[in-house]
Amino acid sequence: MGAAKMSARRRRAVPWLVLGLWIVVLVVMAPFASKLGDVQRDRAVDYLPASADSTQVARIQEQLPGGEATEMVVVYHRDGGLTAADKATAARQIARIADAHALTAEPRGVPSKDGTTVMYPVTSTEPGADEKARDRLVNDVRVIAKGEDGLDVEVGGEAALSTDAGEVYDSLGGPLLYTTAGVVALLLILIYRSPLLWLVPLGVAGTSEFLAQGVAYGLNQGFGTSVTGQSAGIMTILVFGAGTDYALLLVSRYREELRRTERPYDAMAAALKGCGPAVLASSGTVAAGLLCLLAADLNSSRGMGPLGTVGVLVALAAMMTLLPAILVILGRRVFWPLVPRYGSTPKARRSLFAAMGSSAGRRPLTVLAGGAVLLGTLALGVLNLPGSLKQEDSFTTRPDAVAAMRTLAAAYPEQGTQPITVITPADRADAALTEIRGTEGVDSAGRGRTGDGWTEISVTAKDAPESAGETATIKALRTALDGSYVGGPSAEQLDLKDTNSRDTMIVVPIVLVSVLLILIALLRSLVAPLLLVAAVVAVWAAALGIGGLVFGPVFGFEGTDPGLGLLSFVFLVALGVDYGIFLMHRMREESLAGAEPETAALTALRTTGGVIASAGLVLAATFAVLTNMPLVQLVELGFVIAVGVLLDTFLVRPYLVTSAAVALRRKVWWPGALSRAPEPPVPTERQPEPV
User: Fold this and answer.
1) In terms of pTM, does the model score above 0.90?
2) What is the mean pLDDT of residues 515-525?
3) What CA–CA distance (Å, rounded) separates 433 from 394?
């Protein structure tokens, strides 16, 4: 009796101890979580490939006298042609800018041939590498340079574009977090149909986000992991999306166990034992897939891997410890009004997934072939994807810097309006300058700063920024100038595109192998893991194809982000396999219990279909939040992942994977022991077994 009482006391104490431990952890991490925004960087060098020419240019410029150069261009424009008063206004304002700030040279106006525009290149080393100081300089120039009497004045250039992009990224944090939390809350209310239950997983997800920020800050301080606005936003999405998925699976299994078990503590222990392996495997798969991004050369992609992994693992820890503790403390009443009473049975009803399973079970090969044709047809939309996204097309709303770029492109069609920067050894600067001026496509070139053994040369191309002609000029300069580096905004975009192609060739195979090995270890089979991997790859191709059908014609996007293919692949494969693990793990349980292959497949779909659908809706909705952000690359990424998750949830899992499992029967577990278990004879004419 005494031992039994002591055991009961311990059971009651464990949830409170877990809750207390989490409170201590949050108190300790609070000072660090609040500092994550301070280390977020969105400079070009934070996104550029580590080994590229443009990255070397940005780094060497920081070491030159005065530090990193801040380059802008002030554009004065009047449609009917600039008047004498306009030119006087421009000269007066530029003089005020020169008096107020330390410029590397006196700005000289460059009038357009049609007389409608004059541009003043403005360069200063005053801010150095300090982003906040750069933003203050850009904004101060914008305050001074104002239009009068119908004169249009715009401030563009690399620094202005970086400032505008930085403001967008800085504005993402709050709206992204609140919108994501609101979407998850709404879906949880609809899923649980309870005024109380939805608050628990949502609160735990918010706690996970807070802790993840602290851990991410620690990675930055301890290992130099880059933190960008994009990677921080993705981490938030993963915390809420993946974390809520794990919560849905656990709560669903806990509800089942409460009907069979008298004490909530024992019911939770049984639920954790039942779904724990699948959740651990699924989170491990996502983490492994994201960590494969460490093999990428692109700084932004490589930094996203650890931050995304932090989000997933922190969410896993919270949903497997804090969530169970709170649910056990609250007891059955948290499910009110649909309380799962001990000994009760859920109301029998024919679910949507039972109907799906029955249709897949009747004609598995027909369903499989039809689904494969559909996904293949959708994948053809990839051929309609627009070309690479230009800087000026990266915003869903046009900031001042982009307006300036478009004004310059229209007014100066005969020459480049964005500098190409060459960094060359100082002792070869004269020879390099001669070589540059003789390179086809170069309009002009001039020597800039010298220091630390390097000389800076500013080059103007004959062709418009990011055009085929300017790209050819950049490549020609890189070929001709041995030992020099060629950078600048257009060179950075070229390096981003080339490096993303290289990273895709390296990271994709690593992701596939890593995910496949985890699935083989979990399912103890080769055929089932290959089936799941093939399914998620098909989903990725189809989702990208749908993007190709809508990005240009519907959304009006002028280009596709070069990193879309790689990032969407990593996320869709890692996250999509999650649902396959949930389904196949339950199918394996049923098979081990002696169920006939078709019965095992359909029972697994019936028991997990609802929670997989709920989880898929939540995950798709959280990524869909990105489509409301003001950056085209985030909109495209969010759209492709959201569409892919929905395809996976409502087409691939219930129809294609289930029909393949039914058609393959025990061969799906080959070469494991389950594949060798004896089967009952298959009737000549089989009727679908009721689910």
Assistant:
1) no
2) 86
3) 33
